[in-house]
Amino acid sequence: MPNFIVSFFRCLPVSRRVLEAYLVALILIVAAFPDVIFNQASLRLTDQITGAFNGVPLKPFYPIPNSTGWWAGYNDNGGATYQSEPMIQFMANSIKNGESPYWNPYSAAGALGPEALVDQKFSFLTLLNAVMGGSSIVYNLVILGFAYFAVFFVYRIVRERFGLTALAATSACIFYLLNGYITANFGSNVTQSYFLVPLCLYAALSFVQFTSVLRWISVVLSFALFFSFTFMPTTITSIIAMGVVVIGFIVQAMRERDWSIKHVTLLLSLLAGGLLASLLLLAPLYFPFVESLSSLGTLDDYSKRVFWSLNFPYALASFYSPSHLIESYNAMEPAAILWDTGASSSSIMGNTVYHSGVIAIALAGCALFRKTDHFKWLVRLSFIGITLVVVRLFDPLWINFIFKYLPVVGNIGSQYWWPVIMTLMTFMVGFGVAAIQAQRFRLFPAFILMLICCASVAVMFKVYGLREPHIDYKTNSLIFLVGLLIFIMFSLLLIRVFNNSRFSNLLIGSALIVMFTELLVGGKMIRFERNDLFTNIPVALKYVKDNAGLYRSLNFGQGGLYPELGSAFGIQELTTINQGLLPAFKDYFYASINLESRQRLGFHPTLAPEGAFPSLILIQDTPSSNKIDWAAVSLLGVKYLILPTTYTSYRAELRSLGFSEVFASDASVIVENKGVLPRAFSIDKPVGDAGAFSLARGFESTLAPASIDSYRNGMVLISGAVSRESLVVLTDNWHKNWSATLNGKKVPILKINGTLRGIVVPAGDYQIRMDYQPASLSVAIGSSLFIILFLIVIGFKRRGLDTAVRARLVS
Asked: Which of 403, 581, 711, 808 is most exposed, with minimal Cβ within 10 Å?
């Protein structure tokens, strides 16, 4: 083994504090997730959806009070259900079969691969799951492992980098693991990067404190793992949060160690270089994304997004608890969701407020205006950062004016700003506990924060009232909230009056137990037993998979083959709810399937008149309200329609059109399209320009099926014979990165009907090969290999480089 690798492992500290971190992380993970560890419950959201649909038993370990059902604690599970979790299976299949992940033929007649950043195809979490098989057990082990090491590094940051007490570090870990943002989005693609923030921060702070080549390499590798999580809004806000902590840490070091501006500039430059190197290490992911921006219209899509602000002052109460007179997250009752406080308001918007809890907010308040200089600037910057984001969430006119001119950041939605709040709050809680232990805290900030809680709840009570349904649950929640307020303020008063360290530590320890209970109860984490949809394919979908071959399916409603399940099962599906969608196909889809506006997913009369995605997830059993061009659907190779058994009107409509029902289960019915066209065929060459053709009515009269000899993600082989010059059509989406050869010679791929692929062939036998590869992939792989080689070289030469860097720092 190279000497620098041996040295790297030797430099890893195995001290008492590290052992504490291992133990605290273990205790908290076991205490927070005993249902998953001991009771066979699942963290995977597809397990929750399938469990609810199929009557799988719930597996709670603790009695969690709840007024609705298992979904109460979740905010938005669609991202995992319809995007990231099916893509774990897609990547598992691609790795197993040696397929390219850069093209997904199973979604919307062909879609882009990792360029669709929201589905996290190349994330570290996805790849770990995929390499290990992608089962439900694997998923739960992986995500628990991520949570464990996240808590481990939070503890080490607070103990080693900030030098605070074990109680302070434990309090930070409890808040990090159980705050409302993570519990409401646990397992979602939105929060995957949240687990890597502590690792990155630990690496960055260690480099700042003890600058060396090996620590710089650890920064590069840590941030490479972080940047592999490509849900950009929360990735960006997490970077902002880490930036606040690092800058606060450096400012404090400038005051305590008398660092010069030159010293700080060099450190920041090296850190920035580390981030750049980590992105170049991931070039095979990011270069194709940058390349695809124009073809996907991603920037245009984000520029049109509307920022939905929180309702002031009513949403303030939800910062403290999700259960107060009304519910929040997915448990909000219809009356609360629709309740209007004025002409310009739409609702309380409580389901986009992630609670921090009464205890944690009070403890964080104790960190403010501390009677010490140690890390005072980090605390101040954290408080400023939290305050600015909270103000942004309520979006007063002055801050809206500022943000609308900020590129990228100005378009980040309110639900994605929470990594800033929760990351900074994590360390504020730790600083607050340390301040209480040292009797260097002031009661005033904590009391003010508690008064805000009281005032917001009082206003909510006055305006909204304490009403049915679930009046007992609401009353008990209100009593619990009041009890927490009294407990924490009385405890702080006692600590101030009785200036005794043992007594203080006892009360703080009790407060941490109460905080753990409060956050656990507020999270409402009730989970179903593991059931693994992806290895137990429903019978109706098995029929489609066994009989469809290369033909496509079209799913109606939210059951059956819901969005992106086709990518997981290897069934080609016409619809999608994914960002890899090609705009030309979306236009084709809605020209062929003209839905009533309220049945279009994400419909907006000006921003998205076609809907956000080509999907029938909201389609109702009302054939008269929609117009479907079945000839255009048949051209795309749709052989099977999957409908809920309850859609009796559409079933009757389809029977009248000559479709036949070929399979039925309790939930779904499979309808076969007898008029489906072959997936590849030849026709007489139509009249058109050099790069594109439109198929005229009646083109089927000269149609002859072509043979698809091989069909893989990024490669298709087609063969056949024609008696005269013809057009061979493959009913997959066209993209500029597809290339083709005809009988071994390179030929252009024509665009057919605006979105499909075609090749002009001469008379005689033909063999066509089509290949997909991002144009930037070769350069990307070269960049990645260069960074790997660079890291190895500087690792070997670290002693001389360490000496040179330290000389520059002290000069």
From this structure: 808
